[in-house]
Amino acid sequence: MSKDILNVVKKKTGKSVTPKDIEKLASGVKPSTLQSETQLRQLIKQVSGLVNVKVSEETINDIVQAVKSSKLDTNNMQQLMNMMMGKK
């Protein structure tokens, strides 16, 4: 687990998250999770709960639309992590 990811989470949310927290959450994520709107919404809510930051329904809709309209290879988790961290 890259410390960069943990630092980004802390910087964006003000909350500390352990590698175990992220690994536990990530263990249930499959490429199909990002293809299913229901599963993607559930994942967003799980992440929100992990960092204890409320996410509005409008923001969830925006995230779902961004993931669905992106050209991400859902089998390439590094590409997804880079997108989430704002890297190209």
Automatic annotation (TrEMBL):
Cross-referenced InterPro entries: SpoVIF
Superkingdom of origin organism: Bacteria
State what protein this is by name: Stage VI sporulation protein F
Native species: Paenibacillus ferrarius
